[in-house]
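Hi D.,

Good news: the full-assembly prediction came through. Inputs first.
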Amino acid sequence: MKLQVDGRKARGDKRRAEIIEATLRVIERDGVAGVTHRTVAAEAGVPTTSTTYHFSSLDDLLVATLISCARDMATEVYWMIDRARSRGSRGAEEVAGLLAEALGPRRGRTMAEYELYLLAARKPELRPAARRWLDVLTSMVRHDDEVAFRVFLAGIDGLLIQGLIDDEPPSAEELRPVVDYLLKPR
Amino acid sequence: MKLQVDGRKARGDKRRAEIIEATLRVIERDGVAGVTHRTVAAEAGVPTTSTTYHFSSLDDLLVATLISCARDMATEVYWMIDRARSRGSRGAEEVAGLLAEALGPRRGRTMAEYELYLLAARKPELRPAARRWLDVLTSMVRHDDEVAFRVFLAGIDGLLIQGLIDDEPPSAEELRPVVDYLLKPR
DNA sequence: TTTGTTTTGGGACGATCGTTCAGGTAATTT
DNA sequence: AAATTACCTGAACGATCGTCCCAAAACAAA
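Then the structure:
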């Protein structure tokens, strides 16, 4: 068993991560359509061939980036639930706040996440990653009413994607009553 | 005032419509990413220059296609409501059926519609078109509970986009209880 | 040091892209 | 009939694309 990592591979992993981060920035700015070896390489400040070396194809790069993006989102959902729990809250405030943030300052990131959804619709390999934040929510939240929970999950997605085509992003206050309605048991 | 139409313009309009239809088929098959002057022209059976003649740029072609697609969707929603009304139904069965169809036989079309959403998120000019089916629903359906109605609209979008990343499309029977929940007043 | 492995990056190839242009045909107007 | 308008289309241009090749550099193992 080797504890000391190979310095070469360490460099490679680091650069791979940088390329993925750069790719995500390109997607946030110009969408999946704007992702080419050259734009990503320029964004990352590396030569063009570096992206082809670390990712066997452009498609691999896209898949890796979106999977990484999905993991980040799932982590974020995890901590949101954790935060709500520690406050003993039902989560309405936290959810509304997270939605408002996703549609405001983090709008580009949210668009990137829905590009992942659409790519997953065409590429089955991406579907587990796209469903990841749904799975996190499902596993962490106790849901006695199965149907109500499915409505909640669908409602979140609907609010987000509809918020993306609003002329101006809705505030947490505007979203609050809708989130309340979604969370209120009956 | 001229009643007789110009035969040349009539031909042009017809071909323009054919190109838009071909573009929609390409989007359904390969996504917006697969749309090029050449693929569209091949799909429509016209020379490549025909698409550049009738649409000043590829972007114009995409916008025109997605606006046309949105109009069709709005029309469909209109008739669904009309159908439900004529039966005196609350619409749950119609909605569940429409969703199942959108995620099954018409899956490609549904994906195209959500590509429109994402494009509208980046191009404000497309937003009125993307919101069209929402406006039709809003104007036709009496909603005494504003919040419940917003939840319903978001729920529909969420069910659709989540259905697109399911490994197999949900049936109308599976969707029915969720739609019931969304429509049930409280 | 020598040998082997991994990363780096400049250069280039063929393919495909959006778009332009010029010459043509058909329909309408004068 | 002549002029005008609108549509059609083959050919081609320059740009950009994904990807490959190969030699140099960095690093690890021998």
